[in-house]
């Protein structure tokens, strides 16, 4: 008991020495929840870090960013047999589960469907499906997040997308029991919780490149869904889809 009290006291003292968390979540007057600084924040200070539940590069940058963490390609890296770039062995190992599924599937029809319609979130649902098939993620891993409200027309389009995804996986020999209901619920959560990922420029050349990309509306390196950051913006009240 004495040791436990001492450990708790030491932990409390360490937390006190660090000061309060640099950010807090509060309600705004007109825009729902927001993240506010609790104290002056130094330049370059880390405010929060989180691992994505699922992510995917922008389609136009598939071979220019890490296929796992979305870090921009500096000119050197680890290329996979599928031609995708990984910035490190760690990312390559982390992606092995879904990438082993991904690289064995002919995604040409699915890619054409998405790229011709300017869709980005179905790519994330596709990756999550590969993660579930490989056993690296649970099928219900996004269920805790707030879903978007979907119109009937959107539901019809999503069902068509699922049929294309399902047939593509079946042609490759993957007979998973995914359903349209699962796909729609995944996309309903991705649509409202996905963050657009833009990386901080590390050089003057990167800054110019980023500025040019912003003008052409292509500054995003990809999209990702995070659990805790999503709670910063949304409550946990379940909305009906329909």
UniProtKB/TrEMBL annotation:
Transmembrane segments: none annotated. It comes from the Eukaryota. This is SET domain-containing protein.
């Amino acid at each position: 008991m004495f040791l436990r009290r001492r450990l708790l006291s030491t932990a409390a003292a360490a937390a006190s020495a660090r000061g309060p968390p640099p950010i807090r979540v509060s309600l705004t007057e007109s825009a729902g929840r927001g993240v506010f600084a609790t104290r002056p924040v130094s330049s370059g200070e880390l405010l929060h870090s989180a691992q994505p539940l699922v992510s995917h590069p922008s389609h136009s940058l598939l071979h220019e960013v890490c296929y796992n963490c979305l870090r921009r390609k500096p000119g050197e890296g680890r290329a996979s047999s599928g031609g995708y770039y990984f910035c490190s062995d760690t990312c390559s190992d982390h992606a092995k589960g879904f990438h082993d599924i991904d690289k064995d599937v002919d995604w040409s029809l699915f890619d054409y469907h998405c790229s011709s319609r300017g869709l980005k979130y179905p790519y994330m649902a596709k990756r999550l499906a590969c993660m579930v098939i490989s056993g690296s993620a649970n099928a219900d891993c996004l269920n805790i997040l707030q879903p978007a409200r979907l119109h009937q027309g959107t539901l019809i389009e999503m069902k068509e997308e699922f049929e294309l995804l399902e047939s593509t996986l079946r042609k490759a020999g993957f007979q998973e029991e995914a359903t349209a209901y699962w796909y729609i619920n995944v996309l309903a959560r991705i649509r409202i919780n996905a963050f657009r990922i833009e990386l901080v420029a590390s050089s003057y050349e990167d800054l110019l490149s980023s500025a040019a990309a912003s003008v052409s509306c292509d500054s995003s390196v990809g999209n990702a869904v995070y659990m805790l950051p999503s709670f910063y913006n949304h409550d946990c009240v379940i909305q009906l889809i329909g």
